[in-house]
């Protein structure tokens, strides 16, 4: 892969007072990033390499001009150096744009996978916070870009675990657990048997949406048997951490809840209306991540599956998902529809209204399954307030809440054909003009 390096010239002319300083960019092919500091105007060093190799010249141009503008503003006392932020990586994530990391790079970024960098553990590995050093030599400013690194356990059992969740409750037959095997990240998508991590990367590499977590790259070092995935860092972690917290400092306001459900409806609608639809299959609060502004992003495509591509309405195969969120047509009948995601979305809507988990064995009998218990309250406007999350202390839009409750009831209909499409759900939520503040 050719690497572009931007050289700057023409610095002798005085910089204008406003607007970006003119810079001249010359693409130069260089063999690696140990650039001899002899050519004037090198802007980069260290781990900035991925920016150089991944961004287009346009991105480079905006980065350079921005840096100049900020540097000059800083000199004029307008901006403190620590305010400097690098532009985000390009939005389009495609296979070719993904960065291939070495294990050493990710080890350094996570301080050797230090325990205090651990963000959480999931079905097939642990997720660590990482800091990638990026330095702009020209300005002398450095910054660390935050990333999230998912490290696959050597013996991943996610598929098995998901099966057990369903099986424990006696809802499915003895599962035929797929054997773990590795096809390579991008060849696996059409294989019947593939690992969750392959599925995750191969789907995430094909999608791009503001409400879907961005895949930045991966590391696949066979000699070390290491498989790692690198994502954008999501500051506030997963939705369930906030929604079910007892602590009031993690309380999600009504406006934030609306922002989250609207963003998720858009993400699912995007997946379902792709040329060949993608069924997410494991929609739940722990797979919704929140950034610093509580913008929600769908994550964890480990169970995602291509939807029907031949005009039929469902696909079949092993039943996978999480108990409490799986529609009856799939759980009992093994038929997976695009609208099976709509069912799971409806259950999440109920959780967002009530602040209660989809399934909680600690609740009194009759209340343990949220869908069963909440349906009569959700269907009757006059009863809705009895089940609204008490932590909201009544601070919610009554009309909005009843409209969302009515949507939830439609989403969890036993027959998938009676459920709305995610496109319709997204449009209805948009129509409520919900996104004023969080
Ligand atoms: N991009 C990210 N930024 C910040 N935190 C993250 C990110 N991805 C995951 N995490 C954290 O790591 C935890 C584990 O994530 P992971 O996707 O492995 O598992 P999960 O979705 O919680 O569980 P499972 O995979 O079993 O469904 C999450 O709950 C979340 O708190």
Instruction: Tell me the domain tally.
Output: 2
Q: Low-confidence spans: pLDDT under 50, at least 5 residues?
A: 1-96, 157-194
- The secondary-structure element order is EEEHHEHEEEHHEEEHHEEEEEHEHHHH
**Would you identify the CATH architecture of the largest domain?**
Orthogonal Bundle
Distance from first to last alpha carbon? 43 Å
Radius of gyration: 24 Å
Shape: globular
- Secondary structure tally: strands: 16
The CATH topology of the largest domain turns out to be Transferase(Phosphotransferase), domain 1
Strand % is 15-25%
Which distinct ligands sit in these coordinates? adenosine-5'-triphosphate
**Which structural class fits the helix and strand makeup?**
alpha+beta
InterPro entries: Kinase-like_dom_sf, Plant_Ser_Thr_Prot_Kinase, Prot_kinase_dom, Protein_kinase_ATP_BS
Domain Protein kinase: 113-438
Organism: Salix brachista
GO molecular function: ATP binding; protein kinase activity
List the helices and strands and how they pair.
Layout lengths: L3 E3 L20 E3 L14 E2 L3 H6 L2 H19 L23 E2 L2 H7 L8 E5 L2 E12 L5 E11 L5 H11 L27 H9 L10 E7 L4 E7 L4 E2 H5 L10 H19 L5 E2 L8 E3 L5 E3 L6 E2 L7 E2 L12 H4 L4 E2 H17 L15 H9 L19 H14 L10 H10 L7
Parallel strand pairs: 4-8
Antiparallel strand pairs: 1-2, 3-6, 5-6, 6-7, 7-9, 8-9, 10-12, 11-14, 12-13, 15-16
């Amino acid at each position: 892969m050719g690497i572009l390096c931007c050289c700057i010239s023409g610095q002798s002319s005085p910089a204008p007072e406003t607007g970006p300083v003119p810079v001249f960019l010359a693409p130069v092919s260089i063999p690696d990033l140990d650039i001899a500091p002899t050519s004037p105007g090198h802007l980069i060093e260290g781990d900035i390499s991925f920016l150089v190799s991944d961004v287009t010249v346009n991105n480079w141009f905006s980065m350079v001009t921005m840096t100049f503008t900020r540097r000059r503003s800083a000199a004029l006392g307008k901006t403190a150096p620590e305010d400097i932020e690098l532009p985000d990586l390009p939005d389009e994530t495609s296979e070719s744009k993904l960065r291939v990391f070495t294990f050493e790079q990710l080890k350094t970024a996570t301080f050797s996978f230090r325990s205090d960098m651990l963000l959480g553990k999931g079905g097939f590995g642990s997720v660590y916070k990482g800091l990638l050093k990026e330095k702009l030599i020209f300005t002398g400013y450095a910054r660390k870009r935050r990333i999230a690194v998912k490290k696959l356990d050597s013996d991943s059992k996610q598929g098995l675990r998901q099966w057990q969740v369903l099986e424990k409750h006696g809802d499915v037959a003895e599962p035929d657990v797929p054997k773990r095997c590795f096809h390579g990240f991008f060849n696996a998508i059409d294989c019947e048997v593939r690992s969750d991590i392959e599925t995750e990367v191969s789907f995430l590499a094909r999608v791009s949406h503001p409400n879907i977590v961005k895949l930045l790259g991966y590391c696949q070092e066979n000699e070390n048997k290491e498989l790692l995935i690198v994502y954008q860092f999501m500051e506030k972690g997963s939705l369930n951490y906030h929604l079910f917290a007892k602590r009031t400092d993690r309380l999600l306001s009504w406006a934030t809840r609306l922002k989250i459900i609207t963003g998720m409806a858009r993400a699912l609608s995007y997946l379902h209306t792709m040329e060949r639809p993608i069924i997410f299959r494991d929609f739940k609060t722990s797979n919704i991540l929140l950034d610093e502004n509580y913008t929600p992003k769908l994550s964890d495509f480990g169970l995602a599956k291509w939807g029907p591509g031949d005009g039929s309405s469902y696909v079949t195969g092993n039943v996978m998902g999480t108990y409490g969120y799986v529609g009856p047509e799939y759980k009992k009948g093994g038929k997976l529809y695009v609208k099976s995601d709509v069912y799971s979305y409806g259950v999440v809507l109920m959780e967002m209204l009530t602040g209660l988990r989809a399934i909680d064995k600690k609740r009194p009998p009759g209340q343990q399954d949220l869908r069963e218990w909440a349906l009569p309250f959700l269907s009757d406007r006059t009863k809705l307030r009895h089940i609204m999350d008490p932590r909201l202390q009544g601070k919610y839009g009554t009309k909005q809440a009843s409209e969302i409750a009515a949507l939830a009831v439609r989403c969890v209909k036993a027959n998938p054909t009676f459920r709305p499409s995610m496109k319709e759900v997204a449009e209805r939520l948009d129509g409520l003009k919900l996104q004023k503040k969080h």
